[in-house]
Amino acid sequence: MPAYQKIQATIMKRIENGQLKPGDAVDSERELAKIHQVSLMTARHALTALEREGMVQRRRGAGTFVAPPKVHFNKLTSFTEQMAGRSLTACSKVLSFGVVDNEQEVAARLALAANTRLLKLERLRLAADEPFAVETCYLPAEEFSGITRSAVARGSLFSMVETGYGIQLAYADEEMDATAAAPATANLLKVARNEPLLRIRQVIYSTKGKATLYVLGLYRSDRHTLLVRRFR
Amino acid sequence: MPAYQKIQATIMKRIENGQLKPGDAVDSERELAKIHQVSLMTARHALTALEREGMVQRRRGAGTFVAPPKVHFNKLTSFTEQMAGRSLTACSKVLSFGVVDNEQEVAARLALAANTRLLKLERLRLAADEPFAVETCYLPAEEFSGITRSAVARGSLFSMVETGYGIQLAYADEEMDATAAAPATANLLKVARNEPLLRIRQVIYSTKGKATLYVLGLYRSDRHTLLVRRFR
DNA sequence: GAGTGGTCTAGACCACTAA
DNA sequence: TAGTGGTCTAGACCACTCT
């Protein structure tokens, strides 16, 4: 392990176990160089890299300080993870589960041939016993042949893909618009027909850049608002 | 100007004027050091910084290469900027302009006292002569007392705030949901009553972290879909 | 004025890639 | 094997901040 990474690790440890709190000064370049018996440039490398990762802030003439804890915006999380974060009692009901081979638009979004066999999974999402979304997921049937209805009913699809198939999900591109509730959807969500719903179409990519999952979600607008941060 | 920034600038120029295209190899560290009469570390600094900005990619043993053009996700842009980017003929119509002092919810979102005087600006946004959004902006009347109806009718509110008042806008937090078109809104947007619209509430912050602008937007769902990228 | 980060030198050895 | 980026040395001067 390179020297500069060792230096980073010792600083990270002290931040994680609470010895250093946000705003506290970190050892200066010169101190770190002395302590770790390295040159100034090496100590410096460690600190600039930590700054790039957002762990510390450097101020010329003042020193290097522990940065306030990162807030993750625009983070891709599964339904299960979201609900856990808000400590809401949440559950899902599987509405349908099967293989389809004529979803041409979905196949196209996943960059697959038009009649590729796809696993299709429809679920009703509930929070505190109130329905608030209908989500339809599609994924290549070949690749994920081990996924069964009962497994899906038990656990998180995200974690099945990530831990069961060794695929790391990296990011999702989402398209959002509004649509009127169709009769069947209105029944499921317990809203009036033609009630405005938030519609999200999501293509989820793996770390290798491959489109892995397509999700179409319809959300009750009164139960769910979407938060996004945009940067200039 | 530091030497490493000069080196960056010469590389950037060659990328911008097309001498270097994505995938092309950039001069190596050693070549740059010779050309610019600097040490290896300085040439290196220039390249690593360019890589951090996403302009180039470095591959050990192979070289440094021009990165594919950046795609900006989750970027905060004004209506004017967006339309320019898509090369659409766009225009706005000012629906109303004035000062209000009883918009308590808006004041709260801008972290101001409940009855603070606010500039309120309603505009209809059109693209290719088709109306597609109604936007209502609020900003503190005291701070932006120089903004007039005629100025707003001519130019971009964003650029007025940024260049006219020396305030750099940094990021926006957005809340999105769906709502039904009220009669007046439906008329303006030329859609049926109760048609589902995408509603976006936006608080725009300056680089100093101050809430500067509040924008409520209602978008025709058939003319506008919102794109967001989320990361894991 | 003492200490900090920002820039820079003139080299070095290593691990890796591509021809 | 020649060339690349990755890591590292042992210093230097400068601009800046804090007291």
Walk me through the topology.
Two copies of one chain form a homodimer.
Chain A: H1 3-16, E1 25-26, H2 29-36, H3 40-52, E2 56-59, E3 63-66, H4 79-86, E4 90-100, H5 104-109, E5 118-127, E6 130-140, H6 149-154, H7 157-164, E7 169-180, H8 183-189, E8 196-206, E9 211-220, E10 226-231
Antiparallel strand pairs in A: 1-3, 2-3, 4-5, 5-6, 6-9, 7-8, 8-9
Helix pairs in contact in A: 1-3, 2-3
The first copy, chain A, binds a DNA duplex (19 and 19 nucleotides) through helix 3.
Based on the model shown, name its key terms.
homodimer; 232 residues; alpha+beta; Arc Repressor Mutant, subunit A; Chorismate lyase; 2 domains; six-stranded antiparallel beta sheet; three-stranded antiparallel beta sheet; 8 helices; 10 strands; elongated; DNA-binding
What does this structure look like?
Two copies of one chain form a homodimer. In chain A, strand 8 and strand 9 form a beta hairpin. Chain A has eight helices and ten strands. The first copy, chain A, has two domains: 64 residues, Orthogonal Bundle (Arc Repressor Mutant, subunit A); 155 residues, Chorismate lyase-like (Chorismate lyase), CATH 3.40.1410. Chain A is elongated, with a radius of gyration of 23 Å. A six-stranded antiparallel β-sheet of chain A has the order 4-5-6-9-8-7. In chain A, strands 1-3-2 form a three-stranded antiparallel β-sheet, covered by helices on one side. With 232 residues, the first copy, chain A, is α+β, with helices and mostly antiparallel strands. The model of chain A has no long low-confidence stretch (mean pLDDT 90). Chains A and B meet through strand 7, strand 8 and strand 10 of A and strand 7, strand 8 and strand 10 of B. The structure holds a DNA duplex (19 and 19 nucleotides).
